[in-house]
Design brief:
A four-stranded mixed β-sheet has the order 1-4-5-6, sandwiched between helices. The protein has a two-stranded antiparallel sheet with strand order 2-3. By secondary structure, it is α+β, with helices and mostly antiparallel strands. Helices cover about 40% and strands about 25% of the residues. The mean pLDDT is about 90.
Length: about 120
């Protein structure tokens, strides 16, 4: 079982406060002989007559010395998880949770925006 990120509980609690039901902690993915774990899986009932929304959330703290190294790691994991979800669980939307200060600085740079696009 993978180690939990520094901000794991904060993200989990924020989802719960927004009426998400945590279904998996972590969310196990398997494809082609490879096992992986996304930090959280959650569902939210959209309406009494509708299907619920399903999400997967990968949590990254960005507290290491090299933010670009952490970005490369996060991007690689995100791409792998997205590939497996597209094969096995297409209705689940994948998110990357990062600290607000990292989002407001590094994730708004032209480089980072270009890579994400």
């Amino acid at each position: 079982m993978p180690a939990k990120d520094v901000f794991h509980d904060a993200v989990k609690n924020a989802l719960i406060k927004e009426n998400w039901t945590i279904t998996d902690d972590p969310l196990f993915l398997e494809f082609g002989g490879v096992d992986m774990y996304v930090d959280l899986g959650a569902e939210k009932l959209v309406g009494a007559e509708k299907d619920g929304e399903k999400i997967a959330v990968e949590i990254k703290s960005f507290i290491q010395k090299s933010i670009t190294y952490e970005f490369h790691t996060a991007l690689g994991q995100y791409l792998n998880y997205r590939f497996i979800l597209n094969q096995k669980d297409r209705e689940r939307i994948l998110y990357l949770a990062v600290p607000e200060d990292t989002y407001k600085t590094f994730f708004r740079l032209l480089f980072t925006q270009g890579v994400i696009a």
